[in-house]
Amino acid sequence: MISLNQLIRNRFDRWLKRRLPATKQIMLNSGNIFIFPSASGLHFLITLFILFLLGTNYQNNLILFLVFFLCSFMVTSLLLSYQNLAGLKLTAVKPQAQFAGKDCLFHLRLMKLKNRGNDIHFSFQKGNSALQTVIDEEQVLLYHFSKMRGYFNPERVTVSSTFPFGLFNVWTHLDFDFKVLLYPIPLTNKLPAEQLTHNNQDESSQQFSSGIDQFSTLKNYQQGESLKSVAWKQLAQGRGMLSKQFEQSIAGERLLDISLLQHIPLEKRLSFLCYQVITLEKTGYRYGLMLVNQKVEMGSGTLHQHHCLQALALFQQAFE
């Protein structure tokens, strides 16, 4: 059964969705800023009311003057509180793919058309990160924690302030439609190579390409080549300017197949494969990925790694 607080919160969220729909850019104004007295503001109003009763009851003009002066002070504070946020332009920056199980980073670009706002706070409405929001002159860095892989939306950003005297809470809840791809949590594993490898070629054989691993041959020195590659010993023997050529081994190919890890729970399988993809990319192997009916062909490089990790992040078909 839904509690009264939950019912009120759901109705408020629906109203907020109609009032402030998702957008990538917004300028704060009277149509999207909300102002309510803070706890200090309520105490201030109660004090004014008590003073007003005393002034009228005892017909004390000095007390009444003080009440009217403090009322004007509160109205001025209300206007200053609004102007502190009004004119602030916020633009969402498309987030880069990240890993689940860590604090996800989100960027907002900010610009104040007039005077820069003071004491403005940014946070996710339902945030759960231990990291503090970072605010500088032109951008805001917000954090949100999530363990779930796939596309993640941290929901609304709360912009608030109690400037200048703490008598009013000025706030708004903005939906920037953040949507970030979260790769599975990479779990370190030392699974046997044959468990994850399908390779039709002899793995003991190696191909070589130009590199810096081991000496290959000598060739005539070309103008502009690094002097570090000059064969100084041969030059001293009178054989002329020669440069050393090196080669590095090209690692074999690996096909990572999720079906070979059936004894492991699905999410853990994906995390193991995520770690293997990262490791193979670092070690220079060409690798591919087999996820039931989905296959990522052999390749290497940053873009290929992203395609593999994206396939792991969006894999939803659980099987035993």
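(the above was protein one; protein two follows)
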Amino acid sequence: MKTAIITTDTYLNHNTGQGHPESADRVSVVIENLKKKYKNFVWKKPKKFDSKYLKITHNPNYVNEVEKSFPKKGLFFLDGDTIVSPGSKEASSDAVGSIISAIDGVQNKQFKNAFCAVRPPGHHAEKNKAMGFCIYNNVAVGANYLIKKYKFKKIAIIDFDVHHGNGTQDIFYDNEKVLYISTHQYPYYPGSGNNSEKGKHNNVLNIPLPAGTNSEEYLNAYEHVLKKLKQFAPEFILFSAGFDAHKDDPLAQLQLKTEDFYDLTKRTLEIVKSTCKGNVVSILEGGYDLNALKESTEMHINALLEDND
């Protein structure tokens, strides 16, 4: 069984304007590097999906408003830094479709696990609003799809993006079937993610870390993630894979090294092996230094590949 990369070129048409950090180059460098380095992936395009899964995750009025907001030309601001263009409609739909296609492929045993190389990212998008470059909450739609379509009762979302995934927390705060765990710089954008935010069913674990946190400090703190995962015993793992905790990233001040993304992924996969049986899908969130992003995704995917053995 192999690892799949789910992607499509519609991400190129999601135009965020000149100088915006969330640019098409982010996905391009990841895909080019993977094609150059590896020959053994399954490459798949996202398929169309039933919009009911969007409307389970987000307020249906919000979904309708977003649909209407995609401009015929030029750019439209959903909030101060979340921008849509004519091509954003297909790109944002494909980003959601990628995680659904990845889940179906894992469930149907077409491949062992998957990484979705897509944009726009998703974890800041709340039930009722766009935020922080995110339009739809891709990973949250994936979790709801697992619950509704495949009847999973224990899904863990591991969010190692440097920014707290306020949207994912908002969507699943009351849902005992979903454990949301986030390691993030704090205090920092978006302002949420205090360790007192625990979810209605103790199903949220926030690990706020101060600016300047280094590899050793981060990986020590990550032991809390592993302990919580072991207690929860998930049947399926979704990674919100942001790589902006890297020391070279311009948008934050954590100090992770490239190889740390291999270590944290490897440790996570080891701890859930007995309950998850390899059910793992990862989707790209942040990461804004192109070289750090390229190398860090490679490390993360190396751990996914090894999990096939």
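Reviewer note on protein two: The chain has one domain: 3-306.
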